[in-house]
Design brief:
Number of domains: 2
Shape: globular
Order of helices and strands: HHEEHEHEHHEEHEEHEHEHHE
CATH architecture of the largest domain: 3-Layer(aba) Sandwich
Strand order of the largest sheet: 5-6-8-9-10-7
CATH topology of the largest domain: Udp-n-acetylmuramoylalanyl-d-glutamate--2,6- Diaminopimelate Ligase, Chain: A, domain 1
Distance between the termini: 93 Å
Number of strands: 11
Helix content: 25-40%
Largest sheet: 6 strands, mixed
Oligomer: single chain
Length: 286
């Protein structure tokens, strides 16, 4: 009986590529769990803390666990965010508004309770105030500007001779009410409510953003040809300037406008260190 070998038909290269594409899995990064010291050193450098004169004591404010695999992020350092961070199992909490602001705090009353929650849960507290406003990648101002579709972004608006805001242009002239609605839609997920002050021109294009509490930048806006200033809080002193300078002022809430930086920083740290991050939404409605 003669032997017979069947000819096996192999797929051509294109079929191989198709088969490969079915079983291809994306490459994942391998990370070692970072130490608190490694994270703080990285953040100090990445956020350029040394460049800013700030009443906030930026950087590590309260020490915690040595190893970190879960970081919580929030706008404000307060008892509720500390409780939520501990309940989520985080070893580190990064905030925009910390607990130390350039003056001696007696560790009594509610300050004692804040410290107790942090220390008992080995929860490290790290704060970044002006550096997180001004940062051109993860900062509050640039992130809000991108969310609104601004183009040609550049640093703008000085605070104590340091530029902390941003200026950009809309793709085309836009009715001020349309921009207000766009901002309201953007901030609604973080409980922001937009207020409009001023009687500037009906169609606007140049927009300046300084999140938080910066209605005082109306004079800079008028001088620099900015049609609209977006900030967080209105000001009894400066709101009348909007009419007098014929510059629109849109205020979306201090808290709401400053959720952007910590969210973007969390995403950056996930990608850089492979840690889990959680944004804690604890609004002040202010």
């Amino acid at each position: 009986m003669s032997s017979h070998k069947e000819q096996v038909a192999f797929p051509d290269r294109k079929e191989y590529e198709y088969i490969d594409s079915i079983f291809w899995m994306p490459q994942t990064k391998d990370f070692d769990m970072p130490t608190l010291q490694e994270l703080c050193s990285y953040l100090d450098d990445y956020l350029q803390l040394g460049m800013y004169r700030d009443i906030s004591q930026n950087g590590l404010q309260v020490q915690g666990a040595e190893q970190v695999d879960h970081i919580a992020l929030a706008v404000d350092a307060r008892q509720e965010t500390f409780r939520q961070a501990a309940e989520q199992g985080a070893q580190m909490l990064i905030v925009h508004h910390g607990i130390f602001w350039g003056r001696v705090e007696l560790v009594t009353g509610h300050v004692y309770e804040r410290m107790r929650l942090l220390i008992e849960n080995k929860l490290a507290l790290y704060a970044a105030h002006l550096p997180l406003d001004a940062h051109m990648e993860v900062g509050n101002n640039v992130q809000l500007a991108k969310a609104l579709g601004l183009q040609e972004l550049e640093p703008w608006a000085e605070y104590k001779k340091q530029v902390i805001g941003i200026r950009g242009v809309l793709p085309q002239e836009t009715p001020i009410n349309t921009l207000k609605e766009r901002l309201q839609q953007e901030l609604s997920s973080v409980d922001g409510t937009v207020q409009h002050f001023g009687k500037g021109k009906e169609n606007v294009r140049t927009v300046g953003i300084v999140t938080g509490d910066a209605a005082n930048e109306l004079m800079s806006a008028a001088k620099d040809g900015v049609d609209v200033l977006i900030t967080g809080e209105p000001s009894h002193v400066f709101v009348p300037f909007a009419d007098e300078l014929q510059t629109h002022l849109l205020c979306g809430g201090h808290y709401a406008t400053e959720t952007y930086g910590v969210k973007a920083l969390g995403a950056h740290l996930e990608d850089t260190f492979g840690v889990k991050t959680t944004f804690l939404h604890v609004p002040t409605f202010a």
